[in-house]
Amino acid sequence: MRSTRPHLPPMARWEFPIPVDRASDVPVYVQIARSLADDVRRGRLRPGDRLPGSRALALGLGVNRNTVVAAYRELEAEGWIMSSEASGTFVSSGLPGDVPRAFGVLRREVPPRSGFDLAPPPEHALGPVFRKGNLDFGSGTPDVRLLPVTALARAYRRAMDANGRRVLDYQTCGRSALELEDGSYGSRDLRRTLAGMLAATRGLAASWENVIVTRGSQMGLVLAARALLGPGDVVAVEEMGSRPVHAALRQSGAVLAPVAVDAEGVDVEAIRELAEHEPRLKAVYITPHHQCPTTVTLGQGRRLALLELARRRRFAILEDDYDHEFHWESQPVLPMASVDTAGVVVYVGTLSKILAPGLRIGYVVAPRPLVDRLAVLRQIADLQGDLIGEVAIADLLEGGEVARHVRRIRRITRDRRDLLTTALRKEIGAALSFDTPTGGMAIWARVAEDLDVERWGALAIEEGTSFRTARFYTVDGSALPFLRLGFSGLDEPELLEAVRRLARARRRLASAPRYEAPLAAAGR
Question: Per-residue pLDDT for 307 more than 50?
Answer without folding.
Answer: yes
